[in-house]
Amino acid sequence: MKSAYRNHFPKCDNTDLGDTREEGRSKLTSDSKKPLVSAVYISTFRPSVKREAEKNKSQWKTMGPAKVAEPSPKNFLQKHSKEPKLPASKFNVPDKKLPALSVPRRTDHPVMGIQSKKNFINANAVAAITGLPKKPQPIYVDRRQGDKYLLETSGLVPKYIKKKDYGVTPKYVTRRNEERKRAQKEQEASNLEHLKNRAMKQLSDEERNSLLQGLKKNWEEVYREFQGLSVEIDTISKKIYKEKLELQMKQLEHDIEVIEKHKVIYIANE
After folding, report:
1. Is the whole model's pTM more than 0.70, yes or no?
2. Which InterPro entries does this chain map to (predicted)?
3. Where are the alpha helices (DSSP H) in 139-267?
4. Neighbours of 248 (CB within 10 A)
5. How far apart are CA 255 and CA 208, in angstroms?
6. Span 180-217, pLDDT tens digits
7. How far does Cα 148 stand from its chain's mean position?
8. pLDDT digits over 117-128, tens only?
């Protein structure tokens, strides 16, 4: 058995063990010679930043739901419990008196023992004999079968024409007519004033002569421009300018003829 184990495992020399020990020592010495890593920088504001972050966050986002006392099943939500309640009034409102009842109360007792000596049979007979007979209601019949209807509600009775205010003009109509007449008078007065301001005035002989001379002078100037046109009018602009001068000359000739024909001329004041 021993020979079998020896054959199975390889042989180990002492030289090999020594080499491995030396390699481990060299590694330790090389690691010790490396420089140590400097400490990580920590800001001085870290606690305050952490405190603000925790303050701004809700409890559900950090460590789960808040640990609070469980509500009691006796303190359940009741109807109208969250509605705002008005404060008690400082004024004492006097109690209003209840109106008198038309029926007797349950605690009231009727008056007993009262008797009357009146003979109601004889009294009713006397009232029926001495009383006036009841007048029948006026009716009308509109069919041959004899259908009857009350005459008062039919509209056939001249009830409205017998009223005191029948045919009288209502107050609002008279008031409206007065306002309309007043507005009409004001409008007529304003129209008369406007016509007076724009009254016609007669031209004097000097103004008429000066106006006539000015129109003739304008006609001569337009006629001079018309004579200065070229013989051959071959463009559109020349045709338009010629037509414009002709219209001006015709208008001036018409005005001159009117002023010369009428010696008395009226003009409106503007």
Report:
1. no
2. Enkurin_dom, Enkurin_domain-protein
3. 171-197, 205-227, 236-261
4. 17
5. 12
6. 999 999 998 998 888 777 777 778 888 889 999 999 99
7. 58
8. 899 999 999 999
